[in-house]
Amino acid sequence: MHSMRKAVASLCLVGLCSLPVLAGAQEAKPTASHAARYALEQELQGYVPGQVIYAQDGLVIRSGLIKEKDLIIHYPQVRVVGKSEVSRKISRYFEKEAKASEKAYNQANTMDERLTSRVDYQVSHHGNRYLSFQRYGYSYIERAAHPTSWELGVTFDLTTGEPVEWQKVVAPKHKGAFTLDKINAALWSTEYGKGHYFFSDFKGLKKLPQNYYLDEAGNIHFVFGQYELAPYSVGIIDLDMGLGL
Question: At what angle do helices 2-12 and 84-108 cross, to 10 degrees?
Fold first, then answer.
């Protein structure tokens, strides 16, 4: 069981996947245009590999899929119009992460306990300079008390195709709000801090957090996993700093 849990932890550090963008298909009308739209929406809901799931302002994302045994990994295949090298770098990043997740799953699933895992993603921010994703999923070991869930953020610079740390993203005028003391103060002012949900021996972060994503407005969200700051029952903690770009 210890070996299995180590493998699950490895899987949780490298996964990602996809959510359909369209909420629901409308009933087809007896016209060619409505019929085409209906067919497209049906395909989007089905996680069809290679299917376009996001197309806006020069960004096209197609669905990548790895599926075997009790593993499902959805990951984005990204095309930034007019920027082939940027597109290649971002897509390659996700492909490598998906393959690493698959490898970790296969290593873990050789143990006695059956492992079920799923990885998904969504676009959280698409601006002129930055493209940010939330990646999330879960792993469940057969006969375990509960599944282990996780969430990771990743943000890319659309001029280079490289992942960027939040320190390079935050606007100079907001940097004073992102000191360790200010981030800790923001944590304590949340419902988790006010409600005493953190571990009893948690006195605040000792170093700056790194797991983050940008929301639609460009605000930075720091994400803390299960057991990182609080018991399992509290779940994943999302700290919205309210500032960013």
Answer: 170
Compute the C-alpha angle 41/64/220, nearest 5°: 90
- To which residue do tokens 């953020």 refer? 153
What gap in Å lies between CA 220 and CA 218, rounded to an integer? 7
Sheet holding 212-214, edge to edge: 212-214, 219-224, 237-244
Please report, for residues 64, 172, 184, 205, the alpha-carbon distance to residue 202 in angstroms, rounded to integers and kept in the order given.
Answer: 40, 30, 11, 8
Report the pLDDT value the prediction gives residue 232, as an integer from 0 to 100.
92
Look up the pTM and report it: 0.79
Give the per-residue pLDDT at 60. 95
The whole-number pLDDT of residue 58 equals: 94
Q: Where do the domains of the chain lie, and which CATH numbers do they carry?
A: 1-22+31-164 (3.30.565.40), 166-245 (3.90.640)
Distance CA 124, CA 101 (A): 22
